[in-house]
Amino acid sequence: MNVLYKANKVILRIEEVIIAAAIIIMALTLIANVLGRLFFNKGVYAAEEIGQYCIYAVTFYGLSYAVTKGQHIHMLGLFDIFPNKVRKIDAILISLVTGATMGVLTYIAFAYVSSLQTLGKVSVNLHVPAYLVVLFLSFGLMFTTIQYILLFIKNLTDKKVYLGLDSEYVPDLKLEKKKGVKA
To answer: What is the pLDDT of residues 24-55, one digit of tens each?
Structure first.
């Protein structure tokens, strides 16, 4: 199991680099485009396409990163009301169902890559093969699937409730005081 968590640390670092690079590239490209249009009446060739690819990277790799850090969207209204045993079961079910859903989406994405490769479709400005873009994004979905599987395993094997691999669940203290229950 420790090997999986060590591999996950490598995946997390790759995600951080991809996300940071995409944001920097997007910012530089779009700023250069605006300045080019303002001062030279000519923008950066394919700036919109580059920005679009960067948004894709931030979205798909950011999803996996958010799951690891426990920073994805949580619907904790009912979760906070439940006793700890129900929270634990709920966390296990959520990670299992979401992991399975992400696994199906990953499969569909990789299948779509092969159909795009057959078609030979390329982007308008940069002439990047469309299957390469989707392949890159498919790995983001695959990493998200891995994160949810690891989260599922962590919730099964640990007594605490985890909403992310790096973040233990902390209940709403105001709600806990009203109920008079320790978390």
So the answer is: 999 999 999 999 999 999 998 899 999 999 99
Residue 73 burial class via C-beta count within 10 angstroms: exposed 0-12, middle 13-18, buried 19 and up: exposed
Would you kindly state where each structural domain of the chain is located, as residue ranges? 2-179
Going by pLDDT thresholds of 50, 70 and 90, the confidence category of residue 173 is: low
Burial label for 39, CB within 10 Å (0-12, 13-18, 19+), is exposed
The span from the first CA to the last CA of the chain, in angstroms, equals 27
Closest by alpha carbon to 12, among 149, 140, 158?
140
- Residue 57 half-sphere exposure toward CB, CA atoms < 13 A: 22
User: What is the residue whose two structure tokens read 């996950």?
Assistant: 8
